[in-house]
Model the fold of this input.
Amino acid sequence: MNINIIKALLKKDIALFMSNRFYMLITVIGLVFYIGIYFVLPSQTDEKFTMAMYAPVVPPAFTQLTENEGVDIKYFADEESLRQAVLEGDYQVAVALPPDIMETWAAGRKPQITVYYASAASSEIKVAIEVMVKEMSYAQTGQALNFETTDEILGPDMLGNQIALRDRMRPLLAVFILLVEILTLASLIALEIEQGTARALLVTPLRISELFAAKGLLGVGLAFGQSVLFMALVGGFQNQPLIILVTLILGSVMVVGIGFLLASLARDVNSVTGWGMLILILLAVPGFGTAIPGLISVWAKIVPSYYLTDTVNRVVNYGADWADIGVNMAAMVIFSALVVMAGMITLRRRYQ
Done:
């Protein structure tokens, strides 16, 4: 492979990129916009917690819950709906009272009260709910500890690890920066094919492998450079910087492969934009699951960008190490390799 030829192609591609005012503009303004969004979002967690309750019979003392400031409470008709509301992130905590709670107290026994917690609920909420139920029980019966509770966390256990909104949005924004470069790379390639530049280059001693190398370096450079700059400015390298760098490199390679595929399948630049937006939206979906826990179900794991977003989220926000994200890394390596190979094979046909 001739390094000088690759350098010359890179200079040409960079010049083509900078001459395209639209993609140049959205690249610069987009990066500033994402950084601005991060710093505008709240940096503190919300101290008010929402609460749901299933109570076929509401003990008189428990009606005092509706009078407490800082508590948002709603009663549900059945326990399954209560569980589902917590799973979907509508409530941070839910309490289910047994139907025979008054009879159990009257018989001198301890009723079984079930407490459901959202995966993102803080440990302070757990303590507060236990104290609150204890006080209500004492007010009703005049006896301390006259109940037993069963705690159930719905979703991944994140008690004690509540994350501010801006930090939960950080993985989504970082990955979105990478994904936008799919459109940029695919559009530049489609423009070259439309104008006949690609076929003209192949008439020269240039080999197609050198052409792919130049395009790949441009795509990885654009995606990786912007994502690294963003993460550096928003504190994304405070935990395990090496893992973050490797993850962003793998994400950049994945972006290049998808860009190759998109350019090979689209007929022109307009098609690239149309299909690219659909791909961009689909790949961005898993990121919303990190910003709003419980929003995305397990089906999101079939989207390749899930492993990229999940890795960034777990490392940056929860201090995960290599052992914790090994499966994600393997999935990213396999998918990136497959999509790059598929993109090169299909794009080779367009060039020829």
Q: What stands out?
A: The chain is about 65% helix and 10% strand. The chain has two domains: 3-42+163-351, 49-154.
